[in-house]
Amino acid sequence: MGNVIYKRVLLKLSGESLMGAQGHGIDSDRLADYARQIKQAVDDGVQVAIVIGGGNIFRGLQGASRGFDRVKGDQMGMLATVINSLALSSALGAVGQPSRVLTAIDMHPIGEHYSKWRAIEALEQGKVAIMSCGTGNPFFTTDTGSSLRGIEVEADVMLKGTRVDGIYTADPEKDPAATRFDRISYDEVLARGLKVMDLTAIVMCRENNLPIHVFNMDKAGNLERVLHGEPIGTVVHP
């Protein structure tokens, strides 16, 4: 492979992807696979910041539909992202990759209180900066949290690791005629109503010129392929 095309990335992982085949909680094999791929990225010279969702444990919006107060439900979701962040940090440690967990809500000694400068300091020291609790506010998703953090730490790109290999004209699991985009503009994503990320996250990326690269993180080696410029997944661009 050639040289990496990004110096600093914001990697957004979904909580659901951590479930692996078991359908709930955290699959240790999937976690270990992610840790190996992330360590390889750092070894290749890429600075990696991570935001991870909490949907494998609790999702605030679904909780609200079951009678939870929305603010409390979203706070429960934030705590779920902390659990996932600690699990990922532990898995990274097991493969010899240092990391720091930063929390948007003061949560000492579980994690350090997030600031842009603490995160960048960790990245420049060769550590993975894992940023949890979303934005720290209710009514904002971890998609929006990852847009915000990616812009704050001055990432070159947001890498959205999912279980599908890019953005399609329709849901490929439901529509066999759906076709994948190689590249698509933010405006076209919005105009077509494509469910890439929530609207707030897309608009933030558009306003701050942060490209989004959507790819299948569950296929081992794909993160490295993206970082070396192989044409996989879909890039959302200005």
What does this entry look like structurally?
This protein is an alpha/beta fold. It has a single domain (about 10-235), classed as Acetylglutamate kinase-like (Carbamate kinase, 3-Layer(aba) Sandwich), CATH 3.40.1160. Helices cover about 35% and strands about 20% of the residues. It has helices spanning about 30-45, 60-65, 70-95, 115-125, 140-150, 185-190, 200-205, 220-225, and strands spanning about 10-15, 45-50, 100-105, 110-115, 130, 155-160, 185, 210-215, 235. The protein has a 9-stranded mixed beta sheet, with helices on both faces. It is globular. The protein starts with 7 loop residues before the first strand and ends with a strand.
Give a short overview.
This protein is an alpha/beta fold and 238 residues long. Helices cover 37% and strands 18% of the residues.
Salient structural properties:
238 residues; alpha/beta; Carbamate kinase; nine-stranded mixed sheet
Shape: globular
CATH class: Alpha Beta
What's the helix count?
8
Spatial strand arrangement across the major sheet: 4-3-5-2-1-6-8-9-7
Radius of gyration: 17 Å
Helix content: 25-40%
The CATH superfamily bears the name Acetylglutamate kinase-like
Regions with pLDDT < 50 over 5+ consecutive residues?
Answer: none
Compute the number of strand runs.
Answer: 9
CATH topology: Carbamate kinase
Helix and strand sequence? EHEHHEEHEHEEHHEHE
Largest sheet: 9 strands, mixed
Distance between the termini: 27 Å
Provide the CATH architecture. 3-Layer(aba) Sandwich
Secondary structure category:
alpha/beta
- How many domain regions? 1
Beta strand %: 15-25%
Mean pLDDT: 94
